[in-house]
Amino acid sequence: MARELAVRTCGLTKQFDRHVAVNDVDLQIAAGEVYGLIGPNGAGKTTLIRMLATAEEPTQGEIYIHGDRLLLDQSNTTLKRRLGYLPDDFPLYDNLTVWDYLDYFARLYFLREPRRTQRLYEVLELVQLQYKRKSLIATLSRGMKQRLSLARTVLHEPILLLLDEPVSGLDPVARMQFREIIKVLQEAGMTILISSHVLSDLAELCTSVGIMELGYLVESARLQDLYQRLSHRHILLTTLGDFKQLQAELNNNSLVKAWEVMAEKQLRVDFDGDEEDCAELLRSLIAANIPLTEFHCTQEDLETIFLKLGHQQAS
Amino acid sequence: MKINWIERLGDKNPQFLRELQELQFSSLLFAVAISFLGQFLLFIFYQSQLPISYDSTPISHKFCINDPVSEYENQLYCLRDNAGNFVIHWQLWWLNLFTFLSLFGIATLLAGGVYLLVNNLATEQRRGTLNFIRLTPQSPQTILLGKLLGVPSLLYFVFILAIPLHLWAGLSAKIPLLLILSFYLVLIVGCFFFYSAAILFGLVSSSLKLASWLASGTVLLFLLANHYSITGTLVDWLFLFSPTQIVPYLVEATHLNSNSIDGWLILPSSLYSRHWFHIQIGSNATNLLMSSLLNYSLWSYWVWQAIKQCYSKPKKPLLTKKQSYFLVVCFELVMIGFTLVKGDVPAWKEGMIYHYRYLLIFNLVMFLALIMLMTPSRQGINWVRSSQKHNRNGQQFVQNLMRQDSVLLTIGVNLAIAFAFLIPWILFNLEASDQIPALLSLLICYNFILICAVITQIIGLRITQKPALWITGTFGIITILPVIVINLLARNSDETSMLWLFTPYAWAVTKSASQVNILFAILIQWTILGLCTLQMRHDIKKLGESASKALFTESNLHSKR
């Protein structure tokens, strides 16, 4: 059975004066997915996300959130309650305390007591800011502010989360904390659309990715499919025995495309199979009594795939 | 109990609660200090105005009860009691304190509140926080009402603390309690109108650096100009917006001798004769109260229509076409009502042509404002432009623009509505000799408005940076500059007065000018209108082509990749 679509856009276009920021985009994101949006600066990622978040009106095209159409001439009150949007600049009220800020937004999203207080504690725990709840926002670090913004975004339990560059400007520890929170949210069943230049993060988090360039969505696929289609596997082999015997054995495997001698008694093999095929190769080499000291299987990462597609990613 | 109350308030209007949360205890203390210190200083100041007795020399003073003996001798000396102290006219003294407090309160509440609101919205827009609130499911009314109630809350607090003194002063001056309460009602509704207008201005003027000063300065100037009102013309309608208008009615209710009251507080006779569709709205405080409240309510409604649109869709016109038609109907009804005056008032002395000129000027200003309200941002036009991608036909594209987004068509329909009101007015109210010149001047004025609408479109299409500022500047130049130039030129020549025919103020000369000259002026206006329309179509086509080119280039680039 086909999964329900959390987001569907048809011919979505946004034009600013003479510049077409988003061009005829047909995007589909299944419910429960973590969808990564990648592309160079100015590719239209932020504009696309802003349109989905109702912050920007499309010039043309249609947006459906869980099957309901976003209508331009209506306030979309119900749909707004389903969306959580975290922009890249996340403006905050510096003169409010963490608790008052979250309480204010909880009220804006019609959360009533006692659920409101309970939810405030939940999100503070999620972003690990319980101990800062009485602090003024102005006193928080950038990472804390980012986490507070995320808490504000998920406060009303949206079913679709739109995160625009959520980890930009964060140190590695803060980025890791952020990733962990996203994973928790995914487990909670939220559909998450996340744009980022940090492709290693996306590779870790996402189930699907879309690549944008010059306003077009040039690629949109499940991450596994993308790896299968475009990512090559490399196997690093080191043997104590005869090099020729190893090469002969490799020649017998149809999935081995080529190899390169890396050092004395070390080869790097271009392998066209999946993990099971790797295991089969290893089994055949051991069966052939080749004294292997190293059998290391690696796969090309998202950044390599992205660059291979001819895109230039700033990371 | 207190917590429950705050909880419920916050649930009803989270924005109001947030504004209150921003108040600090120190600022509340400061407000209390300011209020009480101000009241104390005022009280002391008026105390110092009382006459002091050093010896038995007879003196005259405005706060004294005059000695009946001296009055008889045409000498106004202060009456003294048995102890030799002056007998103070306390009712008059309290009245002076009351009126000062009232007028000062009105000016500070209106100008201060307007400043705070415009400034607050500018800050929110600059920080980008307002865009965030826009994304929440709360209605624009809830958010902006919260701002209206919450942002000037310190100011409200200062004035609420002054109410006991104000009320006491009013009652001591023997002003009926009901009238004082009416004053408060007018002030509250007036504040609501001005604050609503400030919110609208704040939303549209976020790029203007001195917007808050400009807004509060305009309010102060308006209140000052109000002192010199009561002209027996349509300008009286403008002054109906001022809460100060009710103060002379309160003063009159004291039944004090008009000689002892400051001139500017005495109810002018022309205020009595203010009419709307022959209803005497200025005859008594009740009528003025009702008309003020209705006037505020009607225009507050329209301001909120624009606010809702502006808040929800900042890049769209502030009014829909349908709303603009109803707005023009409202405006014409209100205006025409004020020209239908009964009795011997200055306007009648000069004839209805006097009213007609004001009608034209007010219509001109209203239409120029409407053009600005109806002009979408570049992005509003882009929607149509991108539709060219599909039909790729310039002619069809222009038709799309005319049908869907053009201000021109809307302004044209609105002008027709205004015509429908003004032509019968001219035929029924003006003398036969004035009717043809009046109709011609109406046509010239409306041609001018149409030209302005086309120019606005051209500016909107060509200028992307602050087009509203450019449009305002252009309107200022083409409506005010000709008056200055022609006045300078016409000082020594009658012929230059014909130049008036090319301005919206053609009524000044349509009666004296020859019909050939008038027709010539109308033909020139139509030529300008035609040329401007051609230019606008050319600009639209060019923009459409370049947009298509941009789309094709990007498509090609994409396909090459």
UniProtKB/TrEMBL annotation, chain A:
UniProt cross-references to Gene3D superfamilies, sorted A to Z: P-loop containing nucleotide triphosphate hydrolases
Source species, domain of life: Bacteria
A GO molecular-function annotation: ATP binding
Coiled coil: none
Domain ABC transporter: 7-239
UniProt keyword annotations, A-Z: ATP-binding, Nucleotide-binding, Transport
Family in the record: Belongs to the ABC transporter superfamily.
PANTHER family attached to this UniProt entry: ABC TRANSPORTER, ABC TRANSPORTER, ATP-BINDING PROTEIN
This protein's name: ABC transporter ATP-binding protein
TrEMBL record, chain B:
Domain of life: Bacteria
Transmembrane segments: 25-46, 93-118, 148-169, 175-203, 210-230, 285-304, 325-343, 355-375, 407-427, 439-461, 468-490, 516-534
Keywords tagged on the record: Membrane, Transmembrane, Transmembrane helix
Protein's UniProt name: ABC transporter permease
